[in-house]
């Protein structure tokens, strides 16, 4: 009964609510004998529903997340941590500005890897928009709070996308004499990141984290319930595929 209630409830909130509205519009257009408009509404409802079902969204994101797995042993001389979003003025424990979910997950993995290996961490991420924080500086502050020595943190705070992450990090690697970087980023983002680093002549050891879905698939009723989170995952995956395609086309 609980799963049924959750399933039905999902149609009272976006995007499920949009599906219901479009179906009502379609029925009204059929009643008014406007079949073309009715069919358009039906197809829009179907498209929104399909792309917001977890059973579909999981396939999109899992197809990227399954391409790399964390290595059994680390063979690197530096950890390269890529950013993934930050707020600029929200209150934090010891300052202002916080990392968003993906960034925080990546940072936590990098911190744990540092504890295991003692490797220094290059924080590669800058400020993308006027209302976002400088991710490297925020991560630096939070990692110091977590007990990581400041001299183990190397800030690259100018990059605004993955292509710049790779270019600016290469300069630091050359300057500091590092040659075996361990790359930490979200699993869905790893392939595009690896390709960008290869493009500037850097071979990395991928260490994916921040998984959005399980490695295996289990079906239950709510896998068919429309979800805004699923739409977000489909959007993330689509962005990655477009980026991968652009790199492979040499753009």
UniProtKB/TrEMBL annotation:
The chain crosses the membrane at residues 7-28, 40-61. InterPro entries: Cell_Envelope_Assoc, DUF218, Rossmann-like_a/b/a_fold. One of its GO terms (cellular component) is plasma membrane. The keyword Transmembrane applies. One of its GO terms (biological process) is peptidoglycan metabolic process. Residues 77-243 form the DUF218 domain. It comes from the Bacteria. Keywords: Membrane, Transmembrane, Transmembrane helix. This is YdcF family protein. It comes from Heliobacterium mobile (Heliobacillus mobilis).
